[in-house]
Amino acid sequence: MADVPLASLSLTHVHYNPEDPLSLLSAWLALVPQALVISYVTLAWASREVEVVLMFAGQMGCEALNFILKRIIKEERPKQMFGKGYGMPSSHAQFMAFFAVYAGLFLVLRHSPVLARPAATVHFGIRALLSLVLCIGAGAVAISRVYLNYHTPKQVLAGSGAGVLCAIAWFFVTRQVRILGWVDWVLDLKVSKFFRLRDLVVSEDLVEAGWQHSEAKRKSKRKDSSEHHSRKTE
């Protein structure tokens, strides 16, 4: 085994200049897509929300498209980079563009919790701001790929464009799926009931709903404790 040359796992192995803080930051940004995949799986399992599953399915479809495009176009990476694989379009840029645009469309157009008017206005403003932050983050990841010489600007722009188009197209598809009642049909399946799939995040603020449920339980607990104490003192 000592004579066998070791290989690098390219999924997480990132070349950067250790003397350049921006290069180090760019290397960390390169790991964001992997972190998001872990977040997708964790959130889908923890929440059992259909919308999360649909978004993750679209994200993986976008990745499959990138895999196909790279092998059709066959454009090499920049000469300075010795990494393996084709560079057109950038998979990091495409992944992040899909994530930012689809999540932004969901927050601004689809997520509509029932709130009082002042709270609803503030809630919408927060969602719009979060959408902007997601787009800025996607742009930072895309720029980092050029900074690290993994991609040319053209490859990053192509990846971002493909990601945006995929996000808009998939958002339209999921909208039609909801209009046609297919989501409700899936939720009625025995396998969906077994895995406790639900569809609440579109119409509810899960943080607010969870907090109200917790407060109601605490209030009931305090009431029961008070009644028990009153009976003991009689």
Automatic annotation (TrEMBL):
Record key words, sorted: Endoplasmic reticulum, Hydrolase, Membrane, Transmembrane, Transmembrane helix
Q: What Gene3D superfamilies does the database record attribute to this sequence?
A: Phosphatidic acid phosphatase type 2/haloperoxidase (1.20.144.10)
One GO process term, biological-process aspect = lipid biosynthetic process
Q: Name one GO molecular function term.
A: dolichyldiphosphatase activity
What is its EC class? hydrolase
The record gives the membrane topology as:
Multi-pass membrane protein
A single Pfam family it belongs to is PAP2
A single GO cellular-component term from the record reads: endoplasmic reticulum membrane
Catalysed conversion reaction: a di-trans,poly-cis-dolichyl diphosphate + H2O = a di-trans,poly-cis-dolichyl phosphate + phosphate + H(+)
Record-linked InterPro entries: Dolichyldiphosphatase_PAP2 (IPR039667), PAP2/HPO (IPR000326), PAP2/HPO_sf (IPR036938)
Q: Does the keyword Cytoplasm apply?
A: no
Give the Enzyme Commission number. Answer: 3.6.1.43
* Membrane-spanning intervals of the chain: 25-45, 93-112, 124-143, 155-173
- Comp. bias (Basic and acidic residues): 223-234
Query: What family does the database annotate?
Result: Belongs to the dolichyldiphosphatase family.
Q: What does this protein do?
A: Required for efficient N-glycosylation. Necessary for maintaining optimal levels of dolichol-linked oligosaccharides. Hydrolyzes dolichyl pyrophosphate at a very high rate and dolichyl monophosphate at a much lower rate. Does not act on phosphatidate.
What is the protein named?
Answer: Dolichyldiphosphatase
Give the species this sequence originates from. Answer: Aspergillus homomorphus (strain CBS 101889)
